[in-house]
């Protein structure tokens, strides 16, 4: 009556610790649970009230109300979570598709044979090598040896 549902629940629990047969405490605690939207516990307390007092019409009505609220809550929850995983899977698929479109097909863009020169000129000097591929470079072994000697990297 004072809208202190937590306090009422706690007081009823204390009463029930001392006297398990107090139907009024079971009913009032059920009322508190109901007001706190804890319909499962409210239903248990109303059921206990009915066990102790078989002709309690208020408890019977409250059990029916609890069942309705539980059913409504489950339907709402079902609606909230319906197809949740399907929606997440669709989002993931869309992201993967977008990423693939951004990257492009890298294997289609690789064509080292088409981009490399088709005619390689033979080396005029046996120590001069032309290297092909992605990076074009020319290497003169004699020149490299002379540079290494100048830098003191070779001892001959």
**Structural class, judged by helices and strands?**
mainly alpha
Q: Please tell me the overall pLDDT.
A: 79
Order of the strands making up the biggest sheet: 1-2
Characterize the overall form: rod-shaped
Note the gap between the termini.
Answer: 106 Å
Q: Let me know the number of strands.
A: 2
Helix content: 55-70%
**What's the SSE pattern?**
HHHHHHHEEH
Number of helices: 8
Strand content: 5-15%
Give the biggest beta sheet: 2 strands, antiparallel
Low-pLDDT segments: none
> Compute the gyration radius: what is it?
42 Å
General description of the model:
The chain is mainly alpha-helical. It is built from 8 helices and 2 strands, in the order H-H-H-H-H-H-H-E-E-H. Strands 1-2 form a two-stranded antiparallel ribbon. It is rod-shaped and about 115 Å long. The N and C termini lie far apart (106 Å). The model has no long low-confidence stretch (mean pLDDT 79).
Task: Give the tags.
two-stranded antiparallel ribbon, single chain, 156 residues, mainly alpha, 2 strands
Describe the structure in brief.
This protein is mainly α and 156 residues long. The protein has helices spanning 5-18, 23-35, 39-52, 57-81, 84-103, 106-109, 112-115, 141-150, and strands at 128-131, 137-140.
Walk me through the topology.
Elements: H1 5-18, H2 23-35, H3 39-52, H4 57-81, H5 84-103, H6 106-109, H7 112-115, E1 128-131, E2 137-140, H8 141-150
Helix pairs in contact: 1-2, 2-3, 3-4
